[in-house]
Amino acid sequence: MQSWEGLDAFVAVAETGNFTRAASRLGVSISQVSREINRLEERLGTQLLVRNTRRVALTENGRLFEQRCRQLIDDREAAFDSVISGKDAIKGLIRLTCAVAYGERTITPIIGRFVAEHPEISVDMELTNRVLDLVADGVDLGVRIGEITDARLGRVQLGSRSLHVCAAPAYVERHGAPASSSDINAHACLLGTAQRWQFKTAGQENQIAPQGRWRCNSGFSVLDAAIQGLGLCQLPDFYVQDHLRDGTLVELLAEERPSDQAIWAVFPKRSPQPSRIAALIRFLQVNLSLSSEIRHVDDHNAAR
What is the model's pTM? Predict the structure, then answer.
């Protein structure tokens, strides 16, 4: 038995919680994962995992051994990575995830440019509005907005986004504009997935539950309804900035625009971080910063 045999399988099962997902992550059969772990337990003379029909749990010895194995694997990857980095090459597979609309509109084009600049990089990208378990699902990097609470994840801020209350000029001509956020429910509100709209009034963050007879879980459908003049919407900047620029929408209550929301790169904690992941994070920071600068110039021009 080779010294490393079974360690990757064991850590994969410990992180994913079952043999099926561990086998998928490693690209091997479930029987191979089971066989390698059985041999590892025999070699160590102790049980590492408690198996049941729903989930695999670590024994106390398994928990201690998993911590040491994880560090060994990280050190091994770092050793390979240091040689690759020494050759000025960034290579390998990056698995990443992001919310659907933000991913399609903003993140995917940036990832495309990154792959074009690094021909030995491969990406496996899943756009989903579900919050994936990055550790269990074997995902290298997630782009998320708002608060990050999972202690297993590291994070780096990539940028920020702003929320805007908007309407078509035709709607404002017919119904007028709200004088303050407290007037919101006197207007037709176009509702999306957010249960509350965010505002910052007199320096204080506050929320209002909007009322309306039009709701859709697609931000682009909410945007289309606003452009048609059906009512007010509150959407992130990447949905509305082009329409604010060309005048098909106008921003309302800009003086009560809420504080910007942080955009994060989140990743399973590893020491040290693989160079391909660090390079992608830096690339995202630079490109999202450029996008933010363009957005702020547009906001300034629109206010003039």
Answer: 0.68
Give residue-wise pLDDT tens across range 272-284: 778 899 999 999 9
Parse the chain into domains and list their residue ranges.
7-85, 89-156+267-303, 163-256
Distance between alpha carbon 273 and the CA centroid of its chain, in Å? 18
Helix ranges (H only) for 200-274 are 219-227, 237-246
In a 13 Å sphere around the CA of 181, the CA atoms on its Cβ side amount to: 22
Residues contacting residue 36 through CB under 8 Å, at least 6 positions apart: 5, 6, 9, 10
Cα 167 to Cα 220: distance, rounded to the nearest angstrom:
14
Query: Crossing angle of helices 219-227/237-246, nearest 10°?
Result: 20
**Are the beta carbons of 4 and 77 closer than 8 angstroms?**
no
CATH of the domain spanning 163-256, picked from 3.40.50.1820, 3.20.20.140, 2.40.30.10, 3.40.190.10:
3.40.190.10
Q: In what order do the strands lie in the sheet with 121-127?
A: 121-127, 92-98, 141-145, 261-268, 153-161
The correct answer on CATH 3.40.50.450 for the domain covering 7-85 is no
Please state the separation of Cα 277 from the chain's center in Å. 14
